[in-house]
Amino acid sequence: MKVVSGDPDPKHVSTSYVERQNLTMRMHMRRFTRLTNGFSKKVDNHRHSVALHYMYYNFCRVHQTLRVTPAMEAGLANHIWNIEELCALLPKPTVSASTIDRNLILKALGA
Fold first, then answer.
1. CA distances (Å), 85 to each of 23, 52, 55, 61, in order?
2. What is the pLDDT of residues 49-67, one digit of tens each?
């Protein structure tokens, strides 16, 4: 256990914020639902899926109450990222035999 001290504002202390975040994550990523075919059996795949979700959620998705992305609101980004920019952050495949067509991926993502 770790001691955390400070003077938080009582009106901003609530489990509702965390529960809402958990619900959003569960609804956007079916990997948390065990009885679906998207359930992650490998920890690495699960970890990458969570990271991808949060990047999309914070940099690509415009939030209704903010009217911008959370990253823009925090000053981390100056525009709404598109899927191509998000995918550009992924490391290049190390297998040279990878022949996945870029246009096919963009079409599948709806971009």
1. 27, 12, 11, 13
2. 889 899 999 999 999 999 9
